[in-house]
Amino acid sequence: MKASTIPLIILCLFMGFTFWVMAGAEQSLLAFGVQLMSSPDTAQVVIDLYILAGLACVWMYQDAKSRGKGLGYLVPFFILTAVFVSAGPLLYLVLRGGREPETEASKM
User: Fold this and answer.
1) CB count, 10 Å around CB of 15?
2) Smallest Cα–Cα separation from 80: which of 97, 57, 99?
3) Exposure string (b/e) for 68-87, b if CB count within 10 Å is 16 or more?
4) Model confidence over 89-107: pLDDT tens digits?
5) Which of 35, 38, 33 has its CA nearest to residue 49?
6) pTM of the entire predicted model
7) How far apart are CA 38 and CA 1, in angstroms?
8) Across residues 40-44, what is the average pLDDT?
9) Concatenated DSSP letters for 28-94?
């Protein structure tokens, strides 16, 4: 399998499940988030997820920078990460593939 195949499968399954759940939800995504933050035990899980999301954004930034991509390239991934947490990094991995950054020798 190519390096981007597994993240693609996970992304499709996760987003499919997310959209299925949201289609049948009785409240908006924002209302759900507020409800989660209203209790300390669920707020701890949400905070933990967003710490991990922040670390993923730092990794995406450093990886994209090493590949010669600018901050403008990353904005959609950061927004997706802010809303769906793991969807942003998964999409980044899908589009990144298994390619390593170009070295100076290969550019010549």
Assistant:
1) 16
2) 57
3) eeeeeebeebbebbeebbbb
4) 999 999 998 766 555 445 5
5) 33
6) 0.81
7) 43
8) 94
9) -HHHHHHHHHTSHHHHHHHHHHHHHHHHHHHHHHHHHHHTT--HHHHHHHHHHHHHHTTHHHHHHHH
Q: Cα separation of 56 and 19, whole Å?
A: 23
Q: Coil, strand or helix: which one is 107?
A: helix
Q: How many CB atoms lie within 10 A of CB 48?
A: 10
Task: Measure the CA–CA gap between 43 and 93, rounded to whole angstroms.
Answer: 28
Separation of alpha carbons 89 and 57, rounded Å = 8
Block residue for tokens 């593939």 = 97
Q: In this structure, are residues 1 and 95 in contact, taking their beta carbons and an 8 Å threshold?
A: no
Residue 108: count of CB within 10 angstroms of its CB = 5
Residue 89: Cβ-neighbour burial (10 angstroms; 0-12, 13-18, 19+): buried
